[in-house]
Amino acid sequence: MKKFSALSILAEGLTGNKGWKPHWNSVEPKNQYEVVIIGGGGHGLATAYYLAKNHNINNIAVLERNWIGSGNTGRNTTIVRSNYLLNESSRIYEHSLKLWEGLSKELNYNVMFSQRGVLNLAHSLQEIRDSKRRVFANKLNKIDAEWLDSIDVKKYCKIINTSKESRYPVLGATLQKRAGTARHDAVAWGYARGASNLGVDICENCEVIGLKVEKNKIVSINTTKGDIKVKKLGIVVAGHGSVLAQMAGFKLPLETHTLQALVSEPIKPILDCVVMSNAVHVYVSQSDKGELVIGAGIDSINSYQQKGNFSIISGQMGSLLELFPIFSKLKMLRTWGGIVDVSPDASPIIGETPIEGIFFNGGWGTGGFKATPGSGWVFAHTIANNHPHNLAEPFSLNRFYKGILIDEHGAAAVAH
Amino acid sequence: MLVIKCPFCGERDESEFHYGGEADISRPKEPSKLNDREWGDYLFMRKNTKGLFSEIWYHSSGCRRWFRVDRNTTTNDITRVFEINK
Fold first, then answer.
1. pLDDT given at position B85
2. Confidence label for A414 from pLDDT (cuts 50, 70 and 90)
């Protein structure tokens, strides 16, 4: 695979850009692998990459039912942060954030990680208290966090409406300066290229139809491109966790919901940070193309449809205009939905399953993108060692039977 | 926006209702006899069906009664709406 550098770009530019090859080899699956990863999104590709890179496993395939980046990796709002309240969450997300900081170099691929700062607004006295508590918790976990009062919020983000006349006035915000955004597609492409380079088979348009389990052990995978024998299987999907678990014969505590997002027409740079509000419920950032990228919460009903209710979008537009009256004339360019597996405590499920040889990494709900590198890192370790990585251990499926939930609902800076 | 035919009030917009999730999750008859696994299954494990799904809805801005709906989670088609226990 050709290395990207200033020199290679210059050389290609001078010779008509004819030397570029596809970034990864999309291949047909073989009939046997040591490890198969189901799900060619960011998390699955990162898992395959770190399995090959950190654990020297070279007989790996990633199965993607569509094309790389066609799922939620290519349809999220790209916010990366680690300012979670609870110790277990903050550790895994901070590990991930540290990987983000070196990711473009690691992958030799520009993932356009931009540490532009994330504001989490507070609109009530209770939210001020909760936010300050989270700042203190973050600091104890050595994560950068600051509390800004409304005057400082206005200084940091000049176009935000901090008027006291507002229905839900902005009373302050937490700020994580190291947080920001990344280019979602580039993350999938970069990991696919990196994994492919290390000998991982990337199999696109290869859908899993069934899983063959014998004596409580995974034997083979039935796909649209034939049967594949496998020693270890990692399920890394965003919205179909329950469907795959059912194929293997175990239960998961997940519900699948549609999560919508939308972008505006592109405008000149106006918003240089990420703003999230839990109470009025909207989050917004501006992409490098100039579009505002806007998201909020899930549709309430269980759904496997990649489209949602207009009422949700209309609600988040109301919230957006409450915070930024300046956007009132802006036209929205397109909306879309992705399906996300939501767990009862809004924390992911990572680790072993009741079936020998099957590992699960899912239930990331609405906040999985930020965790992509860290999730892949700890899951690769878990698969390679048949034992959870210490950062992943608290997120085992068993926590729902032992009653040790990691209750991030309302604690995680923004409602999931 | 779904249009749901409440068995008591007739057709209304989805925004009048609250979603109650999977149907037929009944509270254990003898809770003190359940072990951890059975509690975990009852409290947290869900079918999360892709396809025809039985669920309960609450007409919160209407008659404030619960009822059952059979809905396809891949198409949103509602095939049946009926009173609980009927």
1. 80
2. low
pLDDT tens-digit map of A339-361: 999 999 999 999 999 999 999 99
CA distance B15 to A401: 35
Instruction: Please report residues of A whose CB lies closer than 8 A to that of B2.
Output: 301, 309
Q: Are A274 and A79 in contact (CB under 8 A)?
A: yes
Q: How many domains are contained in chain A? A: 2
Chain B environment of A251 (Cβ under 8 Å): 41, 45
Tell me, yes or no, if B75 comes closer than 8 A to chain A by beta carbon: yes
Mean residue pLDDT of chain A comes to 95
Given an 8 Å threshold on Cβ–Cβ distance, is B1 in contact with A310? yes
Evaluate whether residue A350 is within a structural domain: yes
Using a CB–CB cutoff of 8 Å, tell me whether B44 touches chain A: yes
Contact flag A302-B45 (C-beta cutoff 8 Å): no
Report chain A residues whose CB lies below 8 A from the CB of B73. 256, 302-305
Query: Does residue A269 sit in the same domain as residue A335?
Result: yes
Q: Tell me the C-alpha to C-alpha distance, in Å, between residue B9 and each of A202, A411, B85.
A: 53, 38, 18
> What ipTM goes with this model?
0.96
pLDDT at res. B72: 97
My answer on whether A100 and A214 are in the same domain is yes
The range of the structural domain enclosing residue B46 comes to 3-26+36-82
What values do phi and psi take at A381, rounded to 5?
A: -60, -45
Sign for the CA dihedral angle at A132, A136, A141, A147 comes to positive
Which residues constitute the domain of residue A385?
Answer: 27-82+84-109+184-253+345-402
Q: Are A96 and A205 part of one and the same domain? A: yes
Please indicate, yes or no, if residue B45 is contained in any of the structural domains: yes
Q: Are residues A62 and A91 in the same domain?
A: yes
Residue A416 binned pLDDT confidence (cut-offs 50, 70, 90): very low
